[in-house]
């Protein structure tokens, strides 16, 4: 997922990957072929 996000927006690199949890759910928004935004849809429960 991070590799795909990084393809469209270079700010989604290692630091972004390191803060994700596994599993994680994100919604990517496009306007045609232009990447608009990414939204995190799931937040892990507090442990």
Based on the model shown, name its key terms.
47 residues; 2 helices; two-stranded antiparallel ribbon; single chain; alpha+beta; 28% helix
Molecular structure report:
- It is built from 2 helices and 2 strands; from the N terminus they run H-H-E-E.
- The chain has 47 residues and is of the alpha+beta class.
- Helices cover 28% and strands 28% of the residues.
- It has a two-stranded antiparallel ribbon.
- Strand 1 and strand 2 form a beta hairpin.
- The model has no long low-confidence stretch (mean pLDDT 88).
- It has a domain of 29 residues.
Low-confidence stretches: none
Principal-axes shape call: flat
The rounded Rg comes to: 11 Å
End-to-end C-alpha gap: 24 Å
Structural class: alpha+beta
**Could you spell the SSE succession in H and E letters?**
HHEE
Task: Return the average pLDDT rounded to an integer.
Answer: 88
Strand order, biggest sheet? 1-2
